[in-house]
Amino acid sequence: MSVMDRYLYPRVETPRILTMILWPISIMMIFHKSVILAVNGARTDDFTTVYNASLNFLNRQPVYAENYTTVDPHYLYPPSGTLLMAPLAYLNPDQARWTFIAVSVAVLVLCAYLLTRMFGYSAASWVFPAVVLFFFSTETVANTLIFTNFNAFVLLGMLAFLMLMRSRNDLWAGVFIGLTLAVKPVLAPLLLLPLLQLRWKVFVTAVGVPLLLNIAAWPLLVDARSFIDRTAPYLLATRDYYNSSISGNGLYFGVADWLVIVLRIAFVAMAIFSLWFLYRYYSRTDELLWLTTSSGVLLTTLFLCSSLGQGYYSMLLFPMLMTVFLAGSVMRNWPAWLAVYGCMAFDSFGSREWEPFGRYLEYNKVTLGWSLLMVVTFCVLLFRWLDLRAAADEGAEDGSDSPRPVAPASA
């Protein structure tokens, strides 16, 4: 290369080009979703109910006295969550909400960093801004900020739990998942993972932290009993609004009860097979792939088959999506990413020309996305199991004594 060419056509490595492209776009996405959309807010407001409950708690007023027959957001956190949220009420409503949004954004960026490091990439790589950009382009992150919900902290607790599980810091792993359970029990299915490994120390703190917080909060609430008598039954009931679970979707569209039951059983069966296969073939050879994929299967099954599944819960599937960087990932195919589009896209399908069709897509996109993700995961693992069985049978027929493979070499 001549001296002139060196200055006219400076060489820049592709990773650096990607980093230069991704960071400014990512920063603007963060600014737009937080400073503009989140501060603007929306009709759905998860924060005001939390703030009012915190204020009532500090002023010794009833916390669980809402009218659950309305479709407005309700305060549903247990006494332990009320205790943890109470400091918000020391600020005025606007200050509290803006502070909560700002801390949530910082937590989401931290989560993107932790995911990047968990999968072996440095903060200087193009992967970090790519993960940040993906985060803030999704409906799950956007609506978590716009509705001002607690989900970002749940994701942080989940990532801390998975990372500490890998590093064998069992007591601390239990502390972080226990703190999320004290507010929202959505991560409870993940306790199956340490149970399969017989790591009992995790349960000491995972159960102990929310238990102690509830014991501390109970006498401070004037209507603690109402959480059990009124709020818990509401949480267990299926509602036909803001609910993307199979039962919620079926109730909204009038689907026959028997079909809803059959679908729920089918997805639970797919989850059982997937979890069995992942544990048998990956838990000892690739713990990162096992933990992240299994957590995704457990949570997607919960979203689909429980009484309540809301679209912005999809944030908790980010670790499973990051497995695309690993050999053996179930995410290395286009149907899996079509599923991700369904449950995470911020696009609206409301149509003036084709109103019924657009309405159907809008109300079903999250349910269809979760469902397709489960079907894809099940099919990928089922085909691998069939291939392993066929390979083992061929080895027996030709007299080969080669060991049975313990994990597929590639996706």
UniProtKB/TrEMBL annotation:
Top-level taxon in the UniProt lineage: Bacteria
InterPro entries: GT87 (IPR018584)
Keywords for this protein: Cell membrane, Membrane, Transferase, Transmembrane, Transmembrane helix
Spans through the membrane: 21-42, 96-115, 144-164, 171-196, 202-221, 258-282, 288-305, 312-331, 368-386
Places the protein is found: Cell membrane
Pfam family, one: GT87
Membrane topology: Multi-pass membrane protein
Main localization (coarse): membrane
Family: Belongs to the glycosyltransferase 87 family.
Identification of the protein by name: Arabinofuranan 3-O-arabinosyltransferase
Source organism of this protein record: Gordonia caeni
Gene that produces this protein: aftC
